[in-house]
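Deliverable D2.4 — example input (structure tokens):
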């Protein structure tokens, strides 16, 4: 049976990933590791929770030894908007933290490591529509720079040491379970909460800003499917393009309005607009589809219906 550590296990993606893995491998076999001491009761009651700092190697090693970990999902990261406000922290967590994880995985002969990359690796020189798997990577944010560097570092560990590191370039992720974590695509989460509670939302992006997105159930399923894929089939490793849908802020608002007729959305772009404009509008994820059978289940209509139902409940 796998012994799994999820860093960032109390975060937006990590907390839901932990629950999925516990359902699959057993609660006691999946350790949720967070930096802040605010885990949900669901996490605390369903399996072990530890508090680590990925930039402090000792704290990670202690957990590896204590639980005899053989697999790491390294979800701990500083996201785009927060990273622009604190670039030193972003570099330290996203690069030095990742290198600690990779070195520990190599030294302790771990089976596999997951590394989440992002559409933030792309930049103004990248084709914005149907962005290919192999393309120009010239990001304009510190977050994007750390993700490009992380992809290259993971690939180096794979080629140099044979460490099985796998990763996905996540699009914007929409979740009903956890609050936004400081990303540029977080408007697509906050808008639902405000629509239900206030019937009004002020969006920090322009109405016609289109970005690739994915609903959390698809995100979690894709992550686990990649980690369980046959290595022999994988031509890529730590940098798979992935997407489910693309829509504008205005399209999302109009879809919500179908369910909440009195809902209104106003648009007041801030510094995150420039970040969003440097990212793709749509993604070519054919490599993921061909190499490990990826296929999304949720489109915009299904996502909005399910989000509103879950949040109201």
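Example output (designed residues):
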């Amino acid at each position: 049976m796998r012994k799994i550590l999820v860093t960032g296990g109390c975060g937006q993606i990590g907390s839901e990933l932990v629950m999925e893995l516990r359902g699959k491998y057993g609660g006691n076999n999946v350790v949720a590791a967070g930096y802040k001491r605010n885990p949900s009761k669901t996490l605390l009651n369903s399996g072990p929770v530890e508090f680590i700092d990925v930039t402090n190697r000792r704290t990670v090693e202690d957990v590896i030894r204590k639980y005899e970990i053989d697999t790491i999902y390294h979800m701990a990261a500083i996201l785009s908007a927060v990273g622009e406000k604190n670039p030193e922290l972003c570099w330290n967590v996203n690069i030095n933290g990742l290198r600690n994880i990779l070195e520990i995985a190599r030294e302790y002969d771990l089976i596999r490591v997951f590394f989440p990359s992002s559409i933030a690796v792309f930049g103004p020189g990248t084709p914005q529509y149907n962005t290919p798997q192999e393309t120009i990577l010239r990001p304009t944010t510190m977050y994007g720079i750390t993700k490009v560097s992380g992809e290259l570092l993971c690939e180096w560990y794979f080629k140099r040491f044979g460490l099985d590191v796998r990763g996905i370039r996540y699009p914007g992720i929409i979740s009903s379970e956890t609050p936004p974590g400081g990303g540029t695509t977080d408007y697509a989460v906050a808008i639902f909460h405000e629509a239900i509670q206030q019937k009004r939302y002020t969006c920090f992006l322009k109405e016609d800003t289109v970005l690739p997105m994915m609903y959390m159930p698809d995100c979690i399923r894709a992550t686990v499917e990649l980690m369980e894929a046959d290595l022999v089939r994988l031509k890529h490793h730590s940098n798979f393009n992935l997407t489910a849908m693309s829509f504008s802020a205005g399209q999302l608002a109009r879809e919500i309005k179908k369910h909440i007729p009195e809902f209104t959305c106003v648009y007041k772009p801030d510094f995150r607009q420039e970040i969003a404009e440097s990212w793709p509008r749509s993604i070519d994820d054919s490599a993921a589809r061909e190499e490990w059978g990826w296929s999304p289940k949720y489109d915009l209509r299904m996502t909005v219906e399910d989000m509103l139902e879950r949040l109201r409940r």
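The longest helix spans residues 87-107.
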